[in-house]
Every structure is written in C-alpha cells, then in structure tokens.
Design brief:
alpha/beta, Glutaredoxin, eight-stranded mixed sheet, 8 strands, globular, disordered C terminus
Length: 227
C-alpha cells in the first residue's frame, strides 16, 4: 500500500487532537496470515499516526496460539497494555473507526475515564473479571460511542474489565457467533442473554455489566464465549 492514508487536512485535525495526549501510549499490533489487506492498512495507519506525534509508539508481533485462545484475531490492536489496560480492537480501524482509535489513544494517554461518580462506585464493587465486546462497522455513526463506553469502563476498572472493539467486516466468524444483525451490538462475557443493540445509557449499561459479571466466570485471557 503506497498511497498515503492521511491527507493534509486530516493530519492537521489529528495533530490538534493529539495536543490532548498527556503521556506516551504504546500500541501493539498482532497480525497473522489472514486479513492481509486489513493488516497492511492498520500497519500503515499507525505508522502515519506516529509521524504526526511520536508519543504514539508501535510494537509489532505475530498472533500466536495463546493470543488466538484469548479470542484475538488478525489484525489485533492492544492499546495501552504497557499502562495496565486491557483495551483491544480487532480488525482494521478504517472508516469511522479511524476516529475511534484516535479518541482511544487520547483516552488511554489521559487515564481520565469520564464516567459518572455513581458508575465508578458500581465498578469498584466488581469481584470477577468481565469481558466486554462492542461490535460495529466502519460506516456506523453510532458504533464509536458504544466502543468508547466499553473502553472507558476498562480505564475506570483496569483490574477487572477487558474491553474489545470489533470491526465485524474483518471478523465475520465472530459476527456469526454473536448473531450480529444490527450494530452497534454489545456482549458481556459472551453471554447471549446480555446482548444489547444500539448505544446504551451509561447507568443502565454499568448495572448490566455488574449483573452479568457474576453469571459467567471469565478472565482477560478467557474464551470469547466465556466458556
């Protein structure tokens, strides 16, 4: 892929947004043999982001058996793992999801989750790790809100919340597994009964996360089905 992804206007906008970066953020990119075009897009996009601001760093690796057992697919982005967060994105961050990645980097760098005090108090009562999936498409205008809400929960409760954003175009097997008919779709601990469609109100969603955290035993490295 030789054509640059970011034009001058996009670079100007991203540079302005990255003024909010308060510390460096590392992104780990894991790739396999599948989805080669998505992998190359993701690699180039991240490279161009680093050219805009070198506080974004890129670590690259191959997707291994343990990664796949943890529910990761190619390409997979692990954002801020060096800072103690379990924030991931599966698939290429293209279309609207490019903006989602930029906002995620700002969120992780600042460590400011932006949740209501009541939500933080509820999350502090978590006793079981919980895995949150938010599935969307690059053309869905509501999907970034869903994905970022899950990421905010992961920032607020890093010891208990693993948040995974999914580009379903690059993850059709996962979309079929979760029976995705409309996006954004949220799934808690892989439990079909937890599925919600559309953006969720923060208070209601946090309550639901607490409820389903006690139904299924899972870990950050656990199966995406919660098995």
């Amino acid at each position: 892929m030789s054509t640059r992804l970011l034009d001058d206007e996009s670079i100007k906008h991203i540079r302005e947004r990255f003024k909010l970066l308060s510390r460096p953020v590392d992104v780990t990119l894991l790739t396999g043999q599948e989805n080669e075009e998505a992998c190359e897009f993701t690699r180039q996009f991240l490279t161009e982001l680093i050219e805009v601001d070198d506080r974004i760093t890129l670590t690259q690796g191959r997707l291994g058996d343990d990664d796949r057992a943890a529910g990761l697919t190619s390409p997979a982005l692990l954002i801020g793992r060096d800072l103690g967060y379990a924030i991931e994105f599966l698939g290429a961050p293209n279309g609207i999801e490019a903006g989602t990645l930029i906002e995620t980097l700002i969120l992780v760098a600042g460590g400011e989750h932006g949740l209501r005090e009541e939500s933080v108090a509820q999350l502090a009562t978590l006793t079981n790790p919980v895995t949150l999936h938010s599935l969307g498409t690059p053309t869905c205008p509501h999907c970034p809100t869903s994905i970022l809400l899950n990421y905010r929960l992961a920032v607020a409760a890093p010891d208990f919340v693993r948040a995974i954003g999914v580009n379903v175009v690059d993850n059709m097997d996962l979309a079929r597994r979760f029976n995705v008919k409309s996006v954004p779709q949220q799934v808690i601990n892989g439990d079909p009964e937890s599925i919600t469609i559309g953006t969720q109100a923060e208070a209601d969603y946090v309550t639901q996360v607490l409820e389903f955290s006690t139904r299924t035993s899972t870990t950050r490295e656990g199966d995406i089905d919660g098995e």
